[in-house]
Amino acid sequence: MDVLQFGRALLLLGTCLTGLIFVLALLGIITKERRFVVSARTGFYGLLVIIGGAAGCLVYGFVSGQYSNEYIYNYSEKLLPTGFKIAGLWAGLDGSLLFWTLVLSAWSAAAALQHRWSSRHPTGRRLEPYVYLVLAVVTFFFCLITWNENPFSVMPLEQRLRLAGGHGIATDASGNLLDGAGLNQQLVNYWFVIHPPTLYMGFVGFTIPFAFAMAALLAGELGDYWIRIIRRWTMVTWIFLTSGVILGGLWAYRQLGWGGYWAWDPVENASFLPWCTGTAFLHSVMIQERRDILKGWNVFLILLTFFLTIVATWMTRSGVVDSVHAFAGGDIGIWFQGFIFFIAGVAVFLFFFRFRALRGTQRLESVLSREAAFFINNLILVLIAAIIFFLSFYDKISHDWFGIDAKNPAMFNLVVTPFFAVLLFLTAVGPSLGWVKTSTSSLRRNLLSPLLATALFTVGVYVFLDSKGLMGTWEEVLVPRLRNQHPSAFYPTGLFLALAFFICATVFSEFFRGMKSRVKFRKEDVVTAFFSLVGRNNRRYGGYIVHLGIAILTTGIIVSSMFKIKKEQISIRVGESVEIGPYVVTPVKQDFNEVPQAGQPYKLDEVLFRVTRKTSAGLPVAHGDADAESAGGAGGGAGGAGEFVAELKAERRFYPKSGTWISEVSIHRRLLEDIYIYYPDGDQQGNLFLTVFLNPLMIFIYLGWFTMLGGAIFAALPISGSKVGLSE
Amino acid sequence: MNKLLPVVALFLVALTALVWVGLASMIPVLGVARLSTQEYEGGDVEVKDGQVAAIESLSPLKFTIQPRAGTEPQVFVETPRSVPENFKVGIDVGLRGSYDSETNLFSAYHISTKCPSKYEASKDGEATDGRYPSDSAPGAVQKR
User: Fold this and answer.
1) A35 located within any domain
2) What ipTM, to 2 d.p.?
3) Is there a single domain that holds both residue A454 and residue A556?
4) Measured between alpha carbons, how far is A230 from A220 in angstroms, rounded to an integer?
5) Domains observed in chain B
6) Hey, are the CB atoms on A415 and B129 less than 8 Å from each other?
7) A66, A169: one domain
8) Do the Cβ atoms of A405 and B30 come within 8 Å?
9) Rounded to two decimals, what is the model's pTM?
């Protein structure tokens, strides 16, 4: 038995083990004997080892070059660096399902491990077998479809010889292929190594809260226990999902050469749907803890979030919606549809079966309260998810069901943007509202300073951007422009910047008021007051840091997309220059390697660019149809070279095996802007065809992400309150 | 919860209004074959099922498209946009712009190409560079 056959055998063993865990959990429920439950728990540890072994076999196949395997042949080649060979595990549909199963096994084993402690709590002990029952069902489904897709299949000899003859690939004496077709060249960058696993961790992680919610419904244990347990699980999963979504955008920015990072493509939308409902849950769970209301809503949200992760997987892998990401189709869609209907059916039945038990003991007292703000925030997030879901399917529904072939490319921005504005407003105001009821005088006192600061900040930033030549005219900033599909076509940019600043101001105000109170009443110094304030309530202040990150991210998104300067179809030769904003870009050297260099599967066409600051002296300028599109008044005329800023190497690679050119953009990241050069082509006369962007405040997107990550990790730390699963 | 009903109602009214505005300003989506028929009445249109048949020039970008299934009719395309990633003969393109039936010219203000997550090797095993215009050989770049 070779290693790949062994991997397939392990997968079969894992599938059988999930069945055994299901039976053990069921016996534990029926007989109430702990030994069955503890055996099921141990089963999840074994499952992780077995599925890890199966995945390890496939990875070994990639690294050792077993190209007679169909999956490895399609997604690897000899010259591929080892890191990308390992990443071949999730490069295609079959392997990605095995990777999904592996991540699910790891999350399930972690949940089982947690029960070593939480089963000491009577409710935790009652819930445990039900949690395992649900996890076993989900894991069984993924084992089954992985088995069906079979990433371990070896090509028949006839097929191998045909490929060897057609592609000139060498074979050994047994007819085994000695090279592969190679990974899709657009995937050969480090983003491919980190983005999919991060997103998978987020998607798959929501299985654990789902399992607890279903367990609570099945067992009728609908008190606060399960919600306290899954709060931290959801937070950790949310961190991965948020990072996965942002990393996907940053990958597109780095790889696709269009200078943007989000295009409302169905595959992008699919990752955002569970983020919306997961974020809503993280807020509404606080309402149940504080006020014992929205119990049913919380169950609904967590079920919906898991449902959306499965729907998102179905959307991206079944080919049901037309996306720029042409994922392989096949018959997998029908499996997912069946599973979606199954889980939705069971969940809806249980939800209504336990409906009476899901009523809270208290009610909403006032619209001017924190719980009301949280609930409105929830409604908006769910509404946004519903709009995005509907619009993602709009083309298909209108064509297939109604025979209408029409669309509005601006629809997403037109409809979704105002709801984001309300969400940002609530994010800013929420912390100033008290639980139960807030008096208008208290609200005025809490918000007056942040509002004044917001006004000052907004004006200050506009003046600053104006002085940098990045802002454009006041009319462009403040008046809606009805000309393209960008949000600026409908809504004033200034509103969103002001809202982002408002969030920052209220967050700082919260920190300030908390510290002031400690300094005054506990006689602490400022530093001690700060650390004791955040240390004693890390969840609350971690949340505020996340809000701060959202404000920074929003600022980055708004400024980088609204004040972008773009020059397209520049035709330029070495030694000539083109102006972009305050800079002059000059190609100074071009190198073309006719033969792929050692260890590289591509020929390299590399251009070195020198970026300098503009002066009044003249230089040879770009010719051709340079099309300037500027929000900040970029000129198209001659400019001179001044102070040296940077050297950039933009390149394009020719992969002889597939006959494909792939461009690698070059970005010089500065504090206030990215200088972004996309070099897609040239001609035999020595003309280089370029697109150059000046994208302001892109670094804020990274800063916002890191701040959100820091805040969420801090909020998830078990440093205040009680330990998970015991006294909770 | 009744206290929040006006808020919910306000959201739903706003959503309805926005969707109505969006639906009122839709553009038709037509296949390449239907562009040259009477179904196209001028103005902006999105072309689906277009496949690059030939490339005339890269700067400015000029090329010909044909339906994904078949080789006729062919429509000439001009765009001020830059060459998108992965652009070559045989690749699917999405276009938005306007069509002049008299000159059979589609002026595109938006162009996108598919981003295949699954690599498929060419059936005959030959490496062909479909990116270059027919009058400039792939070897041209090697001479630079």
Assistant:
1) yes
2) 0.76
3) yes
4) 16
5) 29-115 (2.40.50.140)
6) no
7) yes
8) yes
9) 0.88
